[in-house]
Amino acid sequence: MFLINCPFCGEREQSEFKAGGEAHIVRPKQPTELSDDEWAEYLFIRKNIKGVQFERWNHVHGCRKWFNMIRDTSNDQIKAVYKMGEKPPVK
Amino acid sequence: MSNNLRFKTSKFIDETYRVSFKFNNKTYFGFKGDTLSSALLANGIHLVGRSFKYHRPRGIMTAGSEEPNAIIQLHDNTSRTEPNVRATEVEIYEGLVASSQNCWPSVNFDIGGINNLLSPILPAGFYYKTFMWPASFWKKYEYFIRKSAGLGKSPKVADPDIYEHNYIHCDVLVIGAGISGIMAAKMAAKNGFKTLLVDEKSYLGGSSIYDNSEFSKINNQITSSWLEKEINEISKLENLEIKTRTSVAAFHGYNFLLARENLTDHLPINQRENKVRQRLLKIRAKKVITATGSIERPLIFDNNDRPGILLSSAIKKYIDLYGVACGENNVLFTNNDTAYETAMSLIQRGIKINAIIDNREQIDSKISYEVEKNNIKIYKGYTVVDTYGYRRINKISIMKLSKDGQTVIGDKTKLNCDCLGISGGWTPAVHLFTQSGGKLKFRDEDQVFIPEVYPSDQISIGSCNGNFGLKEIVNNTIFSIKKFLDIENSEYKNIEIISGSNLSKRNIWLLPSDKSIGKTKSFIDYQNDATSKDIKLALREGFRSIEHVKRYTTTGMGTDQGKLGNMHALGIISETAGTKMGEHGTTTFRPPYTPLTFGTIVGRNVGEFFDIFRRTPIHDWHVANNAKFENVGQWKRAWYYPKNNENMHQAVQRESKAARDSAGILDASTLGKIDIQGTDASEFLNRVYTNAWSKLAVGKCRYGLMLNEDGMVYDDGVTTRLGENHYIMTTTTGGAANVLGKLEDYLQTEWPELDVYLSSVTDHYATISVCGPNSKKIVSKVIPDLDLSDEKFPHMSFKNAKIDNIRCRVMRISFTGEHSYEINIQANYGKSVWEKCMEAGKDFNITPYGTETMHLLRAEKGFIIVGQDTDATMTPIDLQMDWIVSKKKFDFIGKRSLYRSDTIREDRKQLVGLLTENPDDVLEEGAQIVADVKKTPIEMLGHVTSSYYSPNLKKSIALGVVKGGKNMLGQKLIISMENKNINVTVADPVFLDKEGERLNAKL
Ligand SMILES: [Zn+2]
Question: What is the value of ipTM here, to two decimals?
């Protein structure tokens, strides 16, 4: 079970958090102008890599803030956490 | 029984404290300090169970948690009964009752023993093969297999014991209190680390604590004496917490570990009352030191499973720790020096050793010379090829090994014995290390897997790290811990160690025999009866991966997870397949290390605490008025209020009729309520609901539908504009938490520029809904100051009001189609306002109704319930609710998805009304809807989502989803039930008062 360093609260148990899928997928500003394929790309297509993955997490049983996490899915090492809107601190 | 098996000299046994216990209905005696296994052995009992598949007699094999055979049922026939308990781990107490399992009718005469004779037809994969062909055969076998196999009986009544969970945070966790664990704990604690030391046993010190040999000394003291002083010292350290009888079950990532602490299992039953039996410790450690030791390997030869065959180290432990001899005429069979330590313990007590069989040609250690000096015959370069004796070993035959160890040569020699100790060397207990994600490497010299890559801040020390021999263990512990903790002072200086044993070993995974392998039964996994023959068969049949071989032969799949034999399985696979050990890795060890009781896993979360439930402020009134409750999410909601022995149907019919004829009252407090404020609140609602919100006037209410981004209906409810920048949103009862989460997600991640604040206020208000033609009269009595005229207070509007100086909000909204009011008041006044309404409604037959009547009333009006009439595949268009989808709005959540190629299909399932041909036929919710039952396969068009008998319409009504249903009005369909087909007609989903006359009637 992870120990997650919430950017607002500090280290907390994983059980306080909820995972929210891949990070840095921006909702299109003008969805109505997208083709079915383009909209489907936004709506359904997610990466599932063995290795470094950018994820959204929510401190749901804490400050309720969403933030980003970089996690290596092959060994569950958390490389970094950072706030929404911030640039990833590592690649 | 045999008094000569007990030596009353062990300091771990309190010989003044006699304990009586029952095993298989016979009474025996032992002493305080005994385990069930040591007490049984002291009584001369080896045969304790039958093996799983062949029902072969099996005896106690080990003296620890790795025991594969001595698996017993504890507390037989009581509410505390527990199957699959290892007799080697049970500390005896007065009144203990235990029995063998997996034997029928008794351990001495077991009908399943016939499987042993049938073994040629019970090869590896027997069960799989039987399942596959012919299927009908299985039914014939099953009765007998079920009766004669199986691992124990599960309890049939509730567990009377108390369990709990504890969280522990520490700087350093040390797992295992053997010599290296004790040393590590001392070094950590003395250097300022908050340290926790746990061990699964009742005592500290591991196997060194009973190492009284003159051949292993630390600083010129006998190991056990030196260690005792160490234990004495650390037990006074303030920084150190020690927990015995505590077994680490799981080692997860980020140094999160689960351990089971046994608190009362060793006490007589009458001393356990009101005490916590077991604790699940949830440990988060900054650093973990694993010192779990190693497990002695058996040797694999024909008939190596008879009662009386034990691990050599277990024999030593029974003598030195418990003062119990396992036999009176012993033979030891070994490939390393460990057995000579056992021999010295036997010699010290004057117990006969008939011979030692050592597969090594040359043995060169001080301890072996000492054994020889005692006139013990050592057969060097020999192997055991067979054993004899059904319920207890009585003889073995041995042969000389060829130089390469691949065959046996010469004549067979038979030796008598009643106990055979075997030692195949040691396997580091790396289970917890691998659970944590650690990677192992294979060390060729002595054929062991040892830790290589640590995934977290942890280290393995002692023999679980592959350090064998006292000198290596002590020195390596000091060196590694200094480095690991980054400390200067090791607390140990100039330690001098003498050890009589050498580390040489001749490893042969499968010992050769004079018989062909097909004729032998050399057990690798004792608990699951997997033999070397099975492994070879699996390889012949083409299995290569260790994980496949494991499943096919069931090797390592018992409750002991193959702690003894997994290495041999790997060895035999690599020898047979000609691959290098370690190339295929090892099988995966999964938590728990030893089985956990369900009680420990659930802790205090049992009965009413299994899951929390939420009560409305009016709950007590519902209880006092005979309400039946249903669970909605975590809420207990009043379901219906039966009167005078009414059944549910009768109660609901009465309630529904009263609500339409005069007045009904509903506790709607569970509806989710979200307070929305901010200058962008209107814009926000525009984006989250399908309809338009900007033009909603202050004081007005509007129904809204919320979609997922994929266009599917997610939630619905009425939202009221309380002020210019202030709304209160209601959600479904079950959806409240998710809706809030979803709204927060969009606000924080997609639209952070919006000035909007959300607060969940569900619990802040009690919500009382009064409906029916007399609702206005009732509410006017409760709130006389409020102008309820239709001009001042029309449908879909809201007013602030006061009841006895307490502010409340009144909404005129309706989920029943009747004229109705919803009073929202601070939660703690909920019950009193409810009672006021009841009082005011007395003359109008005001009738409390529950969720069932609410569902019926709304179904008459064709109002949907999200989650009942919808699943995650229904768009508003599918629901025939096109009217609520704004065409003008630029965007809202899910808008784009409403015209994807899939969502615009005309043949999607759409919500329709259904009327039965016979108005008394009430459909079953979930029933399948079809058009043609003659054409097979029958095409499923949809299913019934809601169905009731309407007392107001005096007929059965239903809602359902049907492919292309929108265009099927008036069409006949069939509801296909098990015994009959019910004819239905597709109808408008609004069954009652489509024009809304009831809602707008002048009252
Ligand atoms: Zn937080």
Answer: 0.98
